[in-house]
């Protein structure tokens, strides 16, 4: 599956330092230690509606990881999926009278346009579930061969009792797991299962539903295993960073990690990064609640994508936050000040700004601190001036290369 056009990345003088991020599994900020090529996987959208700001905030976060690693001299093998077959997509297609494939293609196109407009570096591999059915069924067979899976009427389930380190990502107790599993696409109520926490690897064909031939019989993938299979194929086990929104910690990432460990004996990733939820009117912004602010709608209204990006960058990725009517005006005013300052013929020395932005982003992607460093330089340039004729250009490149904001 094709991704989207890549923004131009202008190299900066020198190199950035190692990236440190908060690892969900350990609860600590840890230094990432990639080799010459860093491996990263981010869970993509289920394309039954357009991408909202919660999605954009997640992919902005992984874009910052990508930029910091590149600035530190690493190549980045970034893999992202799109779940172009799943229950929510089928349900929306039926409700709207649209073929599920047409719905998925339409919304993926909008997503690509949004990501390109926001200067998100595209994945090295952008992979759909439909094109990966063979990979997914092969992984399910491997898991079954270990004895960790069992069948109920043609459906293949992973036995949670066979997951040697179940809970290693989320650190939740059983009661919390059961509650979230029921809320987030699981079927703890199915009485035939050995344990309510067992999850579906392969769903046998149902009348009227799409299905594919496989060694497991005709059917389609369950949830969780698609990301495990794609990541193993494109990155192998024990890659550098896995993540997504914080609502994916359990069950999605916990169960995916168990699948990888069962099939390979290794963890799926060294670090797990999760992004705080974006709210609106006191609720998490989500498709199920319908309280959404769409990137595509903002763009249609003429909002500068750089302003949308700046509005999101003003929030730290791990902290849940609320979108309000004040976000865009504040970001637009910041963009105007930065553009005015970098349009000057000279300004204060910009080397400290580059160093401060690098240091802020390297320390758990502290984008608000990075913005504050540029704010201080812009204020000094506009009020006090400066003699360095190279400074405006260096600040402009710093902002573009590390923050992804085009001035």
Distance between the termini: 31 Å
Can you list the strand order of the major beta sheet? 5-4-3-10-11
CATH architecture of the largest domain: 3-Layer(aba) Sandwich
How would a crystallographer describe the biggest sheet? 5 strands, parallel
Residue share in β-strands: 15-25%
What quaternary form is this?
A: single chain
Blueprint of the fold:
Elements: E1 20-23, E2 28-31, E3 37-42, H1 53-71, E4 75-82, H2 87-96, H3 100-117, E5 125-128, H4 133-145, E6 149-152, E7 155-158, H5 174-183, E8 199-204, E9 219-221, H6 225-235, E10 239-245, H7 249-264, E11 269-275, E12 278-280, E13 283-284, H8 295-300, H9 305-313, E14 321-322, H10 327-342, H11 351-362, H12 367-383, H13 391-403
Helix pairs in contact: 4-6, 6-7, 9-10, 10-12, 10-13, 11-12, 11-13
Q: How would you describe this protein?
A:
With 407 residues, the protein is α/β, with parallel strands linked by helices. It folds into two domains: 38-296, 3-Layer(aba) Sandwich (Rossmann fold); 304-403, Up-down Bundle (Four Helix Bundle (Hemerythrin (Met), subunit A)), CATH 1.20.120.640. It is built from 13 helices and 14 strands. It has helices at 53-71, 87-96, 100-117, 133-145, 174-183, 225-235, 249-264, 295-300, 305-313, 327-342, 351-362, 367-383, 391-403, and strands at 20-23, 28-31, 37-42, 75-82, 125-128, 149-152, 155-158, 199-204, 219-221, 239-245, 269-275, 278-280, 283-284, 321-322. The chain has a five-stranded parallel β-sheet, sandwiched between helices. α7 (249-264) links the parallel β10 (239-245) and β11. The longest helix has 19 residues, at 53-71. The chain starts with 19 loop residues before the first strand and ends with a helix. The mean pLDDT is 96.
């Amino acid at each position: 599956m094709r991704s989207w056009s890549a923004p131009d990345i202008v190299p900066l003088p020198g190199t950035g330092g190692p990236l440190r991020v908060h690892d969900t599994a350990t609860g600590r900020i840890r230094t990432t230690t990639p080799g010459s090529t860093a491996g990263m996987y981010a869970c993509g959208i289920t394309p039954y509606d357009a991408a909202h700001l919660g999605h954009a905030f997640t992919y902005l976060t992984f874009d910052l990881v990508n930029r910091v690693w590149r600035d530190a001299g690493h190549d980045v093998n970034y893999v992202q999926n799109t779940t172009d077959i799943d229950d929510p997509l089928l349900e929306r297609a039926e409700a709207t009278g649209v073929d599920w494939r047409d719905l998925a293609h339409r919304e993926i196109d909008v997503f690509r346009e949004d990501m390109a407009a926001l200067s998100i570096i595209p994945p090295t591999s952008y992979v759909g579930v439909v094109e990966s059915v063979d990979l997914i069924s092969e992984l399910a067979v491997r898991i079954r061969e270990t004895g960790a899976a069992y069948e109920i009427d043609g459906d293949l389930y992973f036995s949670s009792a066979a997951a040697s380190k179940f809970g290693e990502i989320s650190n939740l107790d059983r009661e919390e797991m059961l509650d979230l599993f029921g809320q987030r696409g699981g079927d703890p109520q199915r009485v035939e299962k050995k344990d309510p926490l067992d999850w579906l690897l392969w769903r046998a064909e149902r009348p009227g539903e799409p299905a594919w031939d496989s060694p497991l019989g005709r059917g389609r993938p369950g949830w969780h295993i698609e990301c495990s299979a794609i990541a193993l194929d494109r990155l192998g086990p024990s890659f550098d960073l896995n993540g997504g929104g914080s609502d994916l910690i359990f069950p999605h990432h916990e169960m995916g990690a168990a699948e990888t460990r069962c099939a390979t004996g290794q963890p799926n990733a060294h670090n797990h990064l999760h992004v705080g939820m974006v709210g609106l009117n006191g609720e998490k912004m989500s498709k199920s609640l319908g309280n959404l602010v769409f990137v595509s709608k903002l763009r249609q209204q003429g909002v500068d994508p750089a302003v949308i990006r700046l509005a999101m960058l003003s929030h730290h990725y791990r902290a849940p936050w609320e979108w309000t009517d004040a976000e865009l005006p504040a970001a637009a005013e910041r963009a105007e000040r930065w553009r005015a300052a970098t349009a000057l013929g000279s300004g204060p020395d910009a080397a400290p700004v580059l160093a401060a932005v690098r240091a802020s982003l390297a320390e758990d992607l502290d984008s608000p601190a990075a913005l504050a460093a540029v704010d201080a330089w812009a204020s000094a340039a506009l009020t006090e001036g400066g003699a360095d004729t190279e400074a405006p250009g260096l600040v402009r490149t710093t902002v573009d290369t590390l923050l992804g904001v085009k001035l």
